[in-house]
Amino acid sequence: MYIAVARLAFQRQLAYRTANVAGLVTNLFFGALRAYVLIALFGAQKDVAGYSVQAAVTYTGLTQALLAYIAIFGWWDLLKTIRTGDVASDLSRPINFFWYWWAQDFGRAIGHLVFRGLPLMALYALAYRITLPPTPLHGLAFLVSITLALLISFTYRFIVSLSAFWTQDAVGIGRAAYTISMFFSGFLMPIAFFPSWAARIMSLTPFPSQINTPVEIYLGLVSGPALPGALAMQLFWFIALYALARLALSAGVRKLVIQGG
Which domain covers residue 200, as residue numbers? Predict the structure, then answer.
């Protein structure tokens, strides 16, 4: 059943062809803008915080390609069903509520990756000599990493959406939460470019595991014993957030009142 739900969510992305093209063009424009800013930042320098110019430009391409996949700017589907009361029908189904919504988000994410992410990277490759994973192991680890990144991102968004059980201004909470996520994930610039004290603070949060970790694995900046360590850290954050999501869902359902029921 979860596979069917994911497939339907993927097919919904096919229905929005114009939106997919518009999103691709927009992502490409801002990706190029960010790339030129980083190129100007490097100037005559060949290396900044372990990044070459080529790696930094590739970083902008990958973050733009993963932008819709991770839904870094927000996700409102579950929040809306809680506000309208439609969540009651989902809760009454003989399914696992968390994994039901994960299946929908997985289908959505794959749709964005296929119709926006991959074409964007192809266009980047035509315009600039981008970096490829240095070894097949890094390529495989990257695929594992972006899967874990999606799990972390979804679980975080799931928890944020559950705030609608307690407040009428859940959209405001969501916007604040997603702004924090975007900044701390390394989407705006690599975390290595931040001051060391700021990078240490960011490393204590789950947000770098959404963007920074997968991209640095792809670029080969994480290797040796640090590679399985980075994947293990992503797995840790998913498990921790999942446990928190289960507790929040249980508390929210106990509070839920729909039409006096």
Answer: 2-252
